[in-house]
């Protein structure tokens, strides 16, 4: 027992702190930590290092390398930094690395060094540059706060939903504050900064001067400040060597400690345990680490090399080039069991179990003593709780064996807590492994939740371990194995060195018909990676047509989408694809596509017939009501009716463009010319408009024989120049020449020029002696081929002038 407590350090009379090694770091750092920009994520997260050459003139031309490691020092990513100077690094709650540049641009990278996105902190930051930056976490997400060269602050409380907020100006601020930090009070992010002996609190509305209650006199400057992990407490380090600790609202003082060191510390962070009354602050200098609290003494450690502090929910992680350690307050259950000469029920039960293994009768004596005091249930609970806070598996097993031993003598002790702790510790020991490198404590694990832990394993691409944990904890498939397999498949489609067929086959063999897995989501990721053919192959495994079709339309595979929609038998889905096709294709291609899909054509005809019937019914009802109204109308009402009629005509023209075009086209396609003409009469469509609709529909269908019959059916009210234009638009010069011969004299020249017959157009223009037409023909003449025609026109002009 006394050996186990050798690394316990008392702080006051009621608290002990211990520091134990998590990992022996195996990273090969070429520089000291002081030469790097360092960022370490909480909850046992990764570590990012970026060597900072921008402050050294001789290294200004050297491009630094951004390195990302696990908490155990295992390399995760390394990339050459090709962007601008970086001021600060930080991790978001989703373990994305935020790199704040001097120009105010924030680059976001994934855990494996993959670039995600970027955003700017605004033009003012760009113009004044960034002096300092902080990445912080709140209940809303991860935020960024910027101090600019103009000594103004800009803040965004959530980088996922970027809303920049320019903080109020600090009166008389001419230089950068000596220190500053982020507070979160009443769901609002605030900035606390120190200017000489004064403290200012900035919120979205005002700048307020604040004074810490009970601060010792003689302070002329604040050198460092730290806010607790939960934003409830604040610590201030003054130039007198005094450390003030109180609430973050600056309304209550907890304690004050004079460390007699006036040199500014490198770092200062809080070290506290959830639901504990003890509060402590860890202060680090070059070679000294000090733990201070509400006690006259402090705990001091010697640092052999440059170290970096990472505040956690229940302690502080401390890493250097060679080691990674964890400093925390000893939990109450562990203290009760392991402190020297403890007579706590858990301590007696642990001794009883050890004596039982030795086959000693002392086991019975210890057990009887616990039972006589009626504390056996408490003893079992203490051992279970203490096991959760132990990092070494051998101590976990020893405590759990003691708890199991004690349970045997209890009639109604519920086994849930014991079983749950065994499961939790097995999961924690698996992720604490050196090759995984996530040193979560039991308190952090419970705060993080198993779902977030699984997400972090997926983020590290540790899919087998994540699946084993899901199966071991018997999580529902949709929340566990299925979700992880879907993430694995989305990662698999990004492997561009493997063929589409091999990737699709591997995914299908692994996933099969796993419930909760959507092949369409995986296909969408493949399409986003530029692998369209792979996406189509994956969609073949998607059983739901409603999920296949939207992505096929997005990939511009509309005809395949139409086939899938028809196979599904869902008429609504078919109409959705038809609407998309109608907007995507020209009318000719659209109706040719329908001809090749009889079911789609039939559904489209039904829709058109329904539209025609509805239009006719609406027209009959409208005109009946209007006639009844006109019979009883006064003079004023008649003027209103005429105004309404003009509005109807205008709206009717817009309606025709949007609706009747498709209706008439379909009727002509089916050979229902009489019905089309009847529809035109019902809605008083002018003959010219109806001829345009018929002409356009037949030309789009490239039905030249039917178009010829239509042109001869009666005299065209729009002339024959539109026939020429439509044919040339469809690149049919032969048909265009045929209609050009029918065009009247007034439009003959234009028609001939459309079909490229410049010489004949010149003859017609000369014969008509029309100066405008002569100029038009002359503008179409080219020097190489139409020189003789141009001369002919010039001679005709000269003769006309002589006359």
Automatic annotation (TrEMBL):
InterPro entries for the chain: VPS16, Vps16_C, Vps16_C_sf, Vps16_N
One Pfam short name: Vps16_C
Coiled coil start-end: 349-376
GO terms under biological process: endosomal transport; intracellular protein transport; vacuole fusion, non-autophagic
Keyword tRNA-binding: no
Domain Vps16 C-terminal: 517-606, 607-799
A molecular function GO annotation: actin binding
Membrane topology: Peripheral membrane protein
Location(s) in or outside the cell: Late endosome membrane; Lysosome membrane
Coarse class of the protein's main subcellular location: membrane
Keywords, in A-Z order: Coiled coil, Endosome, Lysosome, Membrane, Protein transport, Transport
Cellular component terms (Gene Ontology): CORVET complex; early endosome; HOPS complex; late endosome membrane; lysosomal membrane
Record domain Vps16 N-terminal: where: 4-420
Subunit record text: Core component of at least two putative endosomal tethering complexes, the homotypic fusion and vacuole protein sorting (HOPS) complex and the class C core vacuole/endosome tethering (CORVET) complex. Their common core is composed of the class C Vps proteins VPS11, VPS16, VPS18 and VPS33A, which in HOPS further associates with VPS39 and VPS41 and in CORVET with VPS8 and TGFBRAP1. Interacts with RAB5C. Interacts with STX17, MON1B. Associates with adapter protein complex 3 (AP-3) and clathrin:AP-3 complexes.
The protein's role, per its UniProt record: Plays a role in vesicle-mediated protein trafficking to lysosomal compartments including the endocytic membrane transport and autophagic pathways. Believed to act as a core component of the putative HOPS and CORVET endosomal tethering complexes.
Name of the protein: Vacuolar protein sorting-associated protein 16 homolog
């Amino acid at each position: 027992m006394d050996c186990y407590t050798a690394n316990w350090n008392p702080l006051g009379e009621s608290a002990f702190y211990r520091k134990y090694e998590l990992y022996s770091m195996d990273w090969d750092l070429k520089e000291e930590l002081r030469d790097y920009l360092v960022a370490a994520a909480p909850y046992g997260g990764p570590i990012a290092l970026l060597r900072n050459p921008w402050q050294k003139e001789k290294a200004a031309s050297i491009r630094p390398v951004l390195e990302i490691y696990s908490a155990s020092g295992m390399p995760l990513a390394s990339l050459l930094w090709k962007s601008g100077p970086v001021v600060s690094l930080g991790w978001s709650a989703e373990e994305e690395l935020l790199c704040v540049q001097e120009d105010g641009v924030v680059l976001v990278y994934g855990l494996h060094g993959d670039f995600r996105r970027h955003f700017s902190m605004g033009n003012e930051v760009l113009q004044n540059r960034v002096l300092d930056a902080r990445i912080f976490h709140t209940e809303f997400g991860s935020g960024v706060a910027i101090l600019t060269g103009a000594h103004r602050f800009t803040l965004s409380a959530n980088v996922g939903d970027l809303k920049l907020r320019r903080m109020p100006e600090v009166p008389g601020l001419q230089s950068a504050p000596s220190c500053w930090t982020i507070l979160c009070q009443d769901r609002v992010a605030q900035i606390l900064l120190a200017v000489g002996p004064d403290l200012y609190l900035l919120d979205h509305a005002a700048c307020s001067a604040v004074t810490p209650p009970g601060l010792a006199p003689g302070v002329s400057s604040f050198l460092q400040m730290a806010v607790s992990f939960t934003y409830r407490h604040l610590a201030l380090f003054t130039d007198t060597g005094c450390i003030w600790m109180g609430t973050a609202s600056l309304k209550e003082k907890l304690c004050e400690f004079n460390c007699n060191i006036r040199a500014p510390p490198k770092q200062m962070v809080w070290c506290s345990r959830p639901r504990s009354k003890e509060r402590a602050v860890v202060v680090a200098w070059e070679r000294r680490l000090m733990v201070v609290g509400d006690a006259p003494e402090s705990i001091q450690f010697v640092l052999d090399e440059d170290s970096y502090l990472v505040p956690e929910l229940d302690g502080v992680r401390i890493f250097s080039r060679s080691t990674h350690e964890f400093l925390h307050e000893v939990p109450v259950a562990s203290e009760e069991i392991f402190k020297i000469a403890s007579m706590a029920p858990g301590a007696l039960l642990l001794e009883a179990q050890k004596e039982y293994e030795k086959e000693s009768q002392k086991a019975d004596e210890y057990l009887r003593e616990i039972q006589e005091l009626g504390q056996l249930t408490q003893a079992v609970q203490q051992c279970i709780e203490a096991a959760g806070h132990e990092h070494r598996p051998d101590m976990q097993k020893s405590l759990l064996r003691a708890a199991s031993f004690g349970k045997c003598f209890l009639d109604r002790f519920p086994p849930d807590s014991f079983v749950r702790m065994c499961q939790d510790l097995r999961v924690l020991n698996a992720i604490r492994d050196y090759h995984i490198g996530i040193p979560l404590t039991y308190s952090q694990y419970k705060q993080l939740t198993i779902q977030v832990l699984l997400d972090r394993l997926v983020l590290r691409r540790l899919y087998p371990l994540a699946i084993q944990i899901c199966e071991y904890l018997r999580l529902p498939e949709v929340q566990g194995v299925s979700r992880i397999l879907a993430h694995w498949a989305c990662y698999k489609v990004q492997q561009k060195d493997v063929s589409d067929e091999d990737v699709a086959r591997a995914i299908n063999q692994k996933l099969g018909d796993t419930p909760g897995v959507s092949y369409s989501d995986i296909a969408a990721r493949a399409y986003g990676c530029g692998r369209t053919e792979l996406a189509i192959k994956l969609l073949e495994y998607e059983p739901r047509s409603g999920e296949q079709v939207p992505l096929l339309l997005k990939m511009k595979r509309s005809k395949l989408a139409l086939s899938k929609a028809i196979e599904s038998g869902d008429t609504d889905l078919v109409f959705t694809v038809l609407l998309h096709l109608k907007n995507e294709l020209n009318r000719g291609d659209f109706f040719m596509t329908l001809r090749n899909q009889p079911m789609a054509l039939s559904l489209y005809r039904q829709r058109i017939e329904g539209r025609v019937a509805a239009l006719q019914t609406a027209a009959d009802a409208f005109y009946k009501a209007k006639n009844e109204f006109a019979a009883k109308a006064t003079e004023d009402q008649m003027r209103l009716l005429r105004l309404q009629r003009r509005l109807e005509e205008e709206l009717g023209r817009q309606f025709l463009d949007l609706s009747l075009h498709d209706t008439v086209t379909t009727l002509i396609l089916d050979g229902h010319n009489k019905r089309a003409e009847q529809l035109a009469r019902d809605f008083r469509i002018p003959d010219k408009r109806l001829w345009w609709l018929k002409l356009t529909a037949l030309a789009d269908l490239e039905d030249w024989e039917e178009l010829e019959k239509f042109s001869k059916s009666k005299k065209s009210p729009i002339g024959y120049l539109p026939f020429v234009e439509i044919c040339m638009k469809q690149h049919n010069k032969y048909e265009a020449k045929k209609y050009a011969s029918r065009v009247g004299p007034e439009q003959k020249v234009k028609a001939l020029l459309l079909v490229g017959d410049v010489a004949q157009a010149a003859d017609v223009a000369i014969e008509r002696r029309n100066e405008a037409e002569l100029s038009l023909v002359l503008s179409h003449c080219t020097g190489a081929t139409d020189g003789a025609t141009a001369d002919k026109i010039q001679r005709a002009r000269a003769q006309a002038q002589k006359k």
